[in-house]
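Duplicate of #3305? Posting structure anyway:
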């Protein structure tokens, strides 16, 4: 058990270093609202500490509130993001002091905890997994806020790519770079993982007909063919809501893309303009754009079950893997995760991360939009609170899978479900396409 406690403490320390690095900025940048759809960064900073206090100190350990008067300000349901700058938030220094005070007590609770007790929060260290993952998720949100702000930091590009892989063909729009997933059942979701969110549970059997799925996420180069070929001007490719959205918002390209006088695409990434690299997965597209591209290419988005089967199902063992490459935790050779780079890696860069069916870069790079609404699995039970998942179920949010370059390795797996409104583009999201297999292609 002490090995587990050490791993938990190391994970808590690492995520806090990340949160502090992303908020190592002038106070003015921390309290400013960079976009009406995002919180001021100082809200995220105090919120992760308040969440940690609520779940570890109060709910799990039964301690009294440290600062009961601030709880309401950091309750994500009490105030939408747009209202948060008007609140009398803790200053950046107060927020740092508060979260450090919480953390000190959390480490004492961890020290004294019996992680082998059959307690739903403490058993197996579940509550520590919850708060660590939660803080990493806010880290990714803070990065999206920084990208929207146009501010140059934080650096990233801290880790080299694995040794240069053999250069592979960039998949062309609607082209042949796809893999077949034969018909048959697999087990979706998980009941067993020590820490998985309520929305990933329980494990359940899903039987799918055969389908093809792209080997790689759709690249900037492929997406530019859609953009340059008038994809944004032809309502045939768009759903009615998607067309209304693109018309009202005058969307003509992914967020952060601009065209130069010669017609070449540039993007602004953390405050700097650069040519759009053709062989990186496209990011900052909405579900509407992903769905329109797929229709233009004669394809469709995969359902989340199709995505998950292509990611984790191993026909040789009949089991679902935690990751495409197996059950080993993600290493630098497997996937572009954890902000080692500050952008997606080119397609073909992670052959060691291929899934059993041959799909690559399903984990890391970009969150991948699926055709599925965010709905509960059969037998769903809210844990530890309804507001994590249950209140979001329905036809307002689409499911995203696989994590991005900004997602921490401990915060994603084959069964992990993310969700957002179909019109959102600030998240590090792209997609890959699929199509149903014909009757003579049952594999
Ligand atoms: C799973 C990314 C949609 O940011 O709203 C953070 C994660 N939940 N705090 C979000 C979350 C509570 C959530 N997403
Ligand atoms: Fe939160």
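Output from current build:
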């Amino acid at each position: 058990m002490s090995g587990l406690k050490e791993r938990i403490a190391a994970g808590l320390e690492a995520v806090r270093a990340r949160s502090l690095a992303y908020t190592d900025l002038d106070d003015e940048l921390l309290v400013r609202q960079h976009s009406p759809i995002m919180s001021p960064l100082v809200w995220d900073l105090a919120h992760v500490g308040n969440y940690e206090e609520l779940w570890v100190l109060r709910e799990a350990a039964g301690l009294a509130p440290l600062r009961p008067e601030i709880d309401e300000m950091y309750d994500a349901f009490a105030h939408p993001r747009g209202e948060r700058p008007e609140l009398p938030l803790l200053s950046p220094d107060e927020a740092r002091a508060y979260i450090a005070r919480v953390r000190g007590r959390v480490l004492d609770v961890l020290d004294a905890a019996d992680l082998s007790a059959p307690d739903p929060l403490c058993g197996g260290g579940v509550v520590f997994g919850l708060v660590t993952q939660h803080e990493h998720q806010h880290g990714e949100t803070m990065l999206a806020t920084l990208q929207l702000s146009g501010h140059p930091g934080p650096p990233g590009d801290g880790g080299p790519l694995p040794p240069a892989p053999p250069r592979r063909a960039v998949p062309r729009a609607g082209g042949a770079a796809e893999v077949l997933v034969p018909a048959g059942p697999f087990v979706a979701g998980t009941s067993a993982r020590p820490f998985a969110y309520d929305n990933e549970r329980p494990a359940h059997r899903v039987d799918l007909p055969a389908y093809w799925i792209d080997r790689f996420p759709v690249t900037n180069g492929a997406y530019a063919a859609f953009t340059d070929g008038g994809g944004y001007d032809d309502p045939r490719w768009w759903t009615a809501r998607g067309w209304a959205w693109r018309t009202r918002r005058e969307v003509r390209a992914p967020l952060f893309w601009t065209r130069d006088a010669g017609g070449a695409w540039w993007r602004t990434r953390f405050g700097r303009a650069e040519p759009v690299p053709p062989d990186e997965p496209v990011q900052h597209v909405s579900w509407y754009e992903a769905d329109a591209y797929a229709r233009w290419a004669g394809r469709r988005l995969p359902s989340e079950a199709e995505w998950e089967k292509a990611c984790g199902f191993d026909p040789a063992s009949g089991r679902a893997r935690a990751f495409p490459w197996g059950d080993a935790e993600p290493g630098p050779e497997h996937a572009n995760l954890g902000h080692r780079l500050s952008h997606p890696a080119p397609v073909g860069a992670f052959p060691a991360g291929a899934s059993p069916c041959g799909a690559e870069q399903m984990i890391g790079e970009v969150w991948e939009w699926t055709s599925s609404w965010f709905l509960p699995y059969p037998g769903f039970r809210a844990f530890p609170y309804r507001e994590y998942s249950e209140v979001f179920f329905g036809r307002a949010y689409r499911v995203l899978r696989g994590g991005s370059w900004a997602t921490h390795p401990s915060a994603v797996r084959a069964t992990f479900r993310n969700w957002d409104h179909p019109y959102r583009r600030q998240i590090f999201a792209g997609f890959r396409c699929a199509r149903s297999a014909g009757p003579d292609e049952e594999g």
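Confirmed duplicate; merging threads. The two ends are 46 Å apart (CA to CA). The longest strand covers residues 367-374.
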